[in-house]
Amino acid sequence: MLVDACPSFRKLYDGLNEVHKPASPEILMDDFADHVFGLLENGKTKEFHSIFLVIEEVKLNGDDRAKSLIRDCFFGEIDSIMDKKV
Counting C-beta atoms within 10 Å of the first and last residue's C-beta, which end of the chain has fewer, N or C? Predict the structure, then answer.
């Protein structure tokens, strides 16, 4: 769902799955967070509305595993990036 919401991530997503055959959801979510943060830093926020609609949907209706990936991997990686920037 996140790849559909953020088409600019598709090439990296496909590459990660090819290298890791397939990539774990944790790796994908960490790299997705890095990608989203990079979009923000470059002022390319066009996809953000769609991305955060998916995140909201998962947080409201996803299973425990999906919620954990969003909370721990996506937001955890964003937090880690922010700590490095300070």
Answer: C
